[in-house]
Amino acid sequence: MLSHEAVWKAIDTLAERHQMTASGLARRAGLDPTSFNKSKRLGPDGRLRWPSTESLAKVLEATGASLDEFMSYFPPGARPSLGMPSGAFPPQASSIPLLGFAQAGAGGFFDDGGFPAGQGWDVVDFPVAPSKTNSVYALEVQGDSMLPLYRDGDRLIVEPGAQVRRGDKVVVKTREGEVMAKVLLRQSAKTIELSSLNPAHPNRVFDMSELDWMARIIWASQ
Fold first, then answer.
1. What is the spatial distance between Cα 175 and Cα 148, in angstroms, rounded to a whole number?
2. Where are the domains of the chain?
3. Is 103 helix (H, G, I), strand (E, B) or coil?
4. 62-91 burial: b if 16+ Cβ within 10 Å, else e
5. CATH 2.10.109.10, domain 94-221, yes or no
6. Is the whole model's pTM more than 0.85, yes or no?
7. What is 4-72's CATH topology?
8. Alpha-carbon distance 141 to 154, whole Å?
């Protein structure tokens, strides 16, 4: 299973193999020199922060490292599992649907299962196997309601139908048209409790009958 620790360890190892610090690696890739600092690997609230797929692609290009080389720095069993073949991370970019959170509450953008439907979607490239493009999509954060974890302009990659467990970050759409990103605290047959990403916003509790759908956030481009 792909873990937060394994991803950052692979980046650190890549930097060491090229005789650089994590800051030096970020600088060579054209990123903010602090992007890979250990202090940036956790949010202010202690939540895990992951490097974006764009950052990883820039690092590989800057170092000339092959995909196989980068993957070799992951411990056994810790390779990405988004339907990607072994040794293909990140794979050839494919186009997936993109929609802003402000638009997501309007009718006609999703089917009953939370999959993209209708017109009005944009597209964005995302490193996912072509066979997965019909099961994932991106929602673009607008505003500061999800700070400090997600900022305005961040893109959340969502997979409807993926198994959701306690502690997972999810996107939920209510029958009244409200769309929100939260953390699943607990779920019973009748109710669901969600924790807000922004401490300024209260947690929410819904009857299951109040929800249209819930989908797991599998990646965030930050």
1. 27
2. 4-72, 94-221
3. helix
4. bbebeeebbbebbeeebbbebebeeeebbb
5. yes
6. no
7. 434 Repressor (Amino-terminal Domain) (1.10.260)
8. 5
Section 136-157 average pLDDT: 89
Give the HSE-up count for residue 87: Cα atoms under 13 Å, Cβ half-sphere: 3
Strands (E), 62-108: 94-100
Q: Are 136 and 107 in contact (CB under 8 A)?
A: no
Q: What is the pLDDT of residues 48-105, one digit of tens each?
A: 888 877 788 788 888 888 777 888 888 766 555 444 433 334 444 578 889 999 899 8
DSSP secondary structure string for all residues of 129-168? -GGGTTT-EEEE--SSTTTTTS-TT-EEEEETTS---TT-
Contacts of 107 (CB under 8 A, 6+ apart): 177
User: Which residues fall within 8 angstroms of residue 76, CB to CB, at 6 or more apart?
Assistant: none
